Fold these 2 entries.
Entry 1:
Amino acid sequence: MKTSKIVEQIPPSGIRAFFDLVLGMKDIISLGVGEPDFVTPWNVREAAIYSLEGGYTSYTSNKGLLELRQDISRHLKHKHSLEYDPSDEILITVGVSEAFDLALRAIINKGDHILIPEPYYVSYGPLVTLAGGKPIFIKVNPENSFKITPKDILKHCGDRTKGIVLNYPNNPTGASYTKPELKAISKAVIKRSLIMISDEIYGDLTYDFNHTPFPTLPHMKERTICLNGFSKSYAMTGWRIGYACGPKNIISLMTKIHQYTMLCAPIMSQMAAREALKSGERSTQEMKREYRRRREFIIAGLNEIGLTCHKPEGAFYAFPSIKISGLSSMEFAKELLKKERVALVPGTAFGPSGEGYARISYAASLSNIKEALLRIKRFLAPFERTKPLDKSSGLRPEQGRRTKK
Ligand SMILES: Cc1ncc(COP(=O)(O)O)c(C=O)c1O
């Protein structure tokens, strides 16, 4: 049977591929999945229960409940002085995942280029390809704190460049951008007339400075599709609820696709999202405090055992170098799983520049993080640390050979 070539050719998610190995294994400490270890706050769950009791089981408007769009509009105004018209500048989606797909499909003509900093969240590259575009990757590395610069953008722009994706705080690196850094980026965006798709799903989990939404920057509201949701900051991954804010014409195109594919986000999740916003940020702040505590602990611990790690500014991921082991990222993850029963994600799941790194989620209990660090330390012990490093690769000479196999 002839099936879609384009779908056949895109790779399955590297995270899933790795976690298929984990399935069925016992006594694993999992620092792999990117989701809060908290359950959704009780008042939010209760709102969904009441909505079901009250018989709210129907479709909603394609754009989502007007009341929820109004709540989001008020929330953005109150928190960031951002003004979006709930009637036509906000769309409720099935998670940021759907919003991202809609945004791409609304702007891409066949062959358009979309810039993506790499390593990148696993969906970005494949979804650009599926939308008929071409992902152009901009490599980031620890030397530039895993961040892109305006220069990088200009260097990677060509005649077909339509837009750029920025995810901050970032999955997998945890890097985020200060307001001056974003302002500098916005200048390159203007210079090349790009559309910005700004994935700010971890915005509320920024630890060292205030998160600046991209559309708050001068002249950026009219060229940004800003995506956010409830999965991470309200521990609501299973509810599948997110939203997009942007210029009227783009939101209208996104709504057109959404009305044929999803119709609407689930009504009970929309009701729950209203309660999440209504209850303010108390639970988000509590979770954030806990993530921050874990961040301090895990970063210090990783550096101490020799897995050098920059300090992530947000989200709940550490992205340490595992080069000291001389193993490839995949070998490291597989061996660690087999020998010490700790699951993390090989850096290569997020693109080729993830080679030599691993993503470790600290959305896990402090006791599990402590135990995982002990196990990783034990795992690393047999790797000798006395021979000088090969400066170019960061690997010891014989280890370099090993990774080339
Ligand atoms: C950067 C980023 N964007 C989007 C998503 C998907 O979010 P949602 O659950 O809202 O679909 C994730 C989930 O891990 C993510 O890390």
Note: The chain has two domains: 5-40+283-404, 42-278.
Entry 2:
Amino acid sequence: MKLAKDPFSESFVIYVPSRQNRPEERRGEEIKCPFCKGNEKLTPKELLRLPEKGDWQVRVVPNKYPILEPHEVIIHTPEHDKSFLDIPFENARLIFEAYKKRFNYHKKHTEGEVLIYANTGEEAGASLLHSHSQLIVLDGSFKPSFPKPQPVENLVEENEFFWVYCPSFSQWPYELWIKSKREVLFGEIGQEELVSLVFLLRKYLKRLKQLHEITHKFKIPFSYNWYIYPKKPWYLRIIPRFVYHAGLELASNLTANIVSPLEASLAYKGVEKDYAKVLEKLEKLGED
Ligand SMILES: [Zn+2]
């Protein structure tokens, strides 16, 4: 592992050639999946399983190909072909219970930032299709920078715990944030909040999937990332990957977003009239 720092900014690149050896899985290919029930021996030594007794639904193991140490994998389900949206609610809740436990474990033992993220679908960078997410501790020496919590605008829904909204500074079409109303770290989430979070996340991912089906002309398989902001107040950011970031975005800090955050928020709410406007815009882009 080698580290390079941009002399002009606080950006870092980590070179991790060992990750070239990790198995890549594509649809239709058969590999012996280390995340499946019955293949537990193929993973490094388990760090956590939930429930603790009986058949596991969620397992946490060290990443076999770490970018940094520690780097953990949260296996969402024992079943290979079940997505985060297919599994029972209680199973999904246990994933976030595992997040909380591992977040607090590392907060206790390290000074670094504990970042939890999920890559779902090939375009979001998932190398194994079996549903999972990851936890990595970013050492303080990196001065990792994350987008600061964005002001609540283009509100989609709120309850006593959260705002669900499309920030005005959305860099991706249909980007969605679920932000805690309390000034706390993710590890301080209460049981009721956790249930509410999982409910909202699944509700809006399902809606996002519908939106993706309507915009299938992009031919990008349904892919998204989410991550949990490791500082206060925590938020969960959903980044749909319906488009590629291209030359402009790679070359500069300017992002072209074809769906305005206002339109995105209306689409999430299912407002038909504005929905049509979104479709019109997408159609226009398809012709370009
Ligand atoms: Zn599997």
Note: Residues 97 and 194 are 8 Å apart (CA to CA).
